[in-house]
Amino acid sequence: MRWSNPPASVAPASHWRSRGRLVPAVGAILAFTAVLLVSGAPEEKHISIFSTAANYSLPVLERNGDEYVGLLELFEPLGAVNAKTAGPHWKFRYYDVESEFTAGKTRARIRGSDFDLPSNFVLENRRGLVPLSCLGTLLPRILGGPVTFNQNSRRLFIGNVAVHFTAQVSKTTPPKLVINFTAPVNPMIATEPGRLRMVFTHEAVVAPGSSVLTFDSTIIPSASFQENNGAAELVVAGTLPLIATFSHDGRSITVEPPAQAATPTQPPQQTAAGPAPASPTSVTTTPAATRRYFAVIDPSHGGDERGASLTSQLAEKDITLAFARRLRQELEASGLATLLLRDGDSTLSLDQRASLTNSAHPAIYICVHAASQGNGVRFYTALVPAGTENRGPFLGWDAAQSSYQSASRAAAMSLAKELPGKQIPARSLIAPLRPLNSITSAALALEVAPASDDVSQLNSPAYQQLIAGAIAAGLADLRGQLEAER
Ligand SMILES: [Zn+2]
Q: What is the pLDDT of residue 348?
């Protein structure tokens, strides 16, 4: 890769793309709150449908003082449907099941038998609307199988699709709340003072035996489950800040105080590649929350997302972790408390990385990438998209970085000056990189490339140590400035 490339095209796509369809974590909740607070507009009503074919949400409409939903829209994701309008009559077909409804009437025919709606059928522009309250009886007639409809929360379960969970707090110090689900989940996660909220919109997560779970822990005393407007919410109460991490392909969520606060700095690994096994037993008695992090280091990629294949043997995710651990060790040696977002081979989405970072309130966030092309180290800071900077008192998730851009750029430029003294080329660039845009502190990405044409240098402890040492020294020099900006 050449230095003359325009910044936006420098970053290899594999580094920055989001994995699959991920729901924005805190962002969606912040944006949603902003709408409510700024305009005072009522919340839009939704119904969520969970089935083996698809999980989806539809808008709920108010007609004649009742709640309605479009019947064709409801059935479309479930199979072959069509509808025909003839005057006031609306003929609806789902596979070979025929139904007929009449505008302004409650009486309908389904499979040749009468069926009475609780209020009138509504026909609007050839679109048939049925009252929400009949879904629990109407759908089994058409589908020929059972459904469970929770009308208060507007959650409709077709067939045996419920996702159950168990929750247990460990006796370790600090404690961990481990929540195991019967199917993968990907909730929106928001951290707030005293609690961590998980909102399940696309998952059929159902209530545990009791809606309030209590635990034998002063740090994580309880969790509560509620359902509303098509979504389920699990709120974990905590007397310390809590973060959530995913494992087992999304079947487990662990909620705990940021664990690295209580673990001693690990010695440098003998070989750079290959993540060290997690060491959950090596906890000390340092209370997690008393530590305020100077830096959050984010080893990019991880788990089933390998990042770039640097060589046939070397995955980027392993180099970023090895390098991040060295950088943490160097920073901690200078007395700078440092949180690693992953200290093992785990999968984290970009939104999770941003929300974990923002809940830790560091002075600086550094995400680490590695590349086989180019020479030395490239520092990137965010290019916040134009027109998204400010929406009243609430910042958009994609523009959260905008107030910290100048601090981020100053830090990147200053760090880029440290390295040439060590015979390592360095350069500072601006690019629209996620999750930098969503970080509410000084934030930069660094991409480590070999100093020569020898890619295996990336895996060399000496090379990693040289760069980590120089960057840590640069950050220690910037400490006063960064602490003042946060
Ligand atoms: Zn990468």
A: 86
Distance between Cα 121 and ligand 1 center (Å): 55
Cα 98 to ligand 1 centre (Å): 54
State the DSSP code for 298.
Answer: E
Same domain, 346 and 222: no
Distance 13 CA to ligand 1 centre (A): 9
Mean pLDDT, 10 residues at a time, over the chain (486 residues)? 33 42 35 35 81 87 94 91 94 94 96 95 95 95 90 91 90 91 87 86 87 88 91 92 86 83 39 38 31 88 90 92 95 91 87 85 95 91 66 58 90 88 87 87 95 90 94 93 85
- 444 occurs within a structural domain: yes
Instruction: Extract the tokens encoding 390.
Output: 């400010």
Distance 29 CA to ligand 1 centre (A): 28
Q: Count the domains in the chain.
A: 3
Containing structural domain, residue 255: 165-260
Cis peptide before 174 (omega within 30 of 0): yes
How much distance in Å is there from the Cα of 368 to the middle of ligand 1?
A: 7
What integer pLDDT is reported at residue 153 of this predicted model? 92
Shared domain check, 296 and 217: no
What is the CATH number for 173?
2.60.40.3470
486 CB neighbour count, 10 Å cutoff: 15
What does each C-alpha distance from 292 to 288, 298, 315, 321, 380 come to in angstroms? 9, 17, 32, 22, 25
Ligand 1 centroid vs 319 CA: distance in angstroms?
10
Q: Flag whether 34 is in a domain.
A: no
Ligand 1: distance of its center to the CA of 364 in Å? Answer: 19
Using an 8 Å Cβ cutoff, are 97 and 110 in contact? yes
Centroid of ligand 1 to alpha carbon of 142 (angstroms):
50
CATH number of the domain that 55 lies in?
Answer: 3.30.457.10
